[in-house]
TrEMBL record:
Residues 112-179 are annotated as: Disordered. It comes from Taxus chinensis (Chinese yew). One of its GO terms (cellular component) is catalytic step 2 spliceosome. One of its GO terms (molecular function) is RNA binding. One of its GO terms (biological process) is mRNA splicing, via spliceosome. Residues 131-146 have a biased composition (Low complexity). It comes from the Eukaryota. This is Uncharacterized protein.
């Protein structure tokens, strides 16, 4: 239904829900109906969620909003907004709230993603080390025209692999900085 509303009406509905939730007229477990993933949201629903949470932050303050969202008795209702089921969904939620200026409420998600991030970085480093070892240990003694051609094509392949590894390391660095 949200996707059918014009932007101004969407904004008003989000502010209305934020007011009702901020004053505890509407129970917070209604957030269980919001599923914040790239696949499950549209532009309109993202705008609605953005305005809803920004208004809640304005009414309650970011600290109090964070306290409410981290209430242990309510966690089962917030699983769909702060998904931990899939790294892609986890990153999407973190990036969404950070982009709208509420990155502070994603601390629990960031803590949850740290072990996975560290494991991915270790895996990349170990793969890089194995790749470097393989490059150094595969040297030839004799050289013929075919050996030189093979060596040139191997060097190009190695350069592509190193470039891919550099890109992966840069992605990991960006993820680590954003986390």
């Amino acid at each position: 239904m949200i996707h059918r509303l014009e932007t101004n009406k969407l904004r008003n509905v989000a502010k209305f829900f934020a007011h009702l939730m901020g004053t505890d007229v509407l129970p917070w477990h209604c957030l269980a109906y919001i599923r914040l993933t790239e696949e499950d949201t549209t532009t309109s629903s993202r705008i609605f969620i953005k305005i809803l949470f920004q208004e809640l932050a304005d009414q309650l303050g970011v600290h109090m909003l964070n306290v409410r969202l981290n209430d242990p008795t309510m966690q089962e209702y917030f699983v769909s907004i702060f998904p931990k089921d899939n790294p892609k969904n986890l990153r999407f939620a973190i990036n969404f709230f950070t982009t709208i200026g509420l990155g502070g409420i994603t601390e629990s998600l960031r803590e949850h993603s740290k072990p996975r991030l560290e494991m991915q970085q270790q895996k990349s480093i170990s793969e890089l080390g194995a790749s470097t070892y393989d490059d150094n240990s595969s040297s030839s003694v004799g050289s013929s025209d075919s050996d030189i051609a093979d060596s040139d094509s191997q060097r190009e392949t190695d350069n592509e692999t190193n470039n891919n590894t550099k890109r992966e390391k840069e992605k990991m660095r960006v993820l680590a900085v954003s986390a």
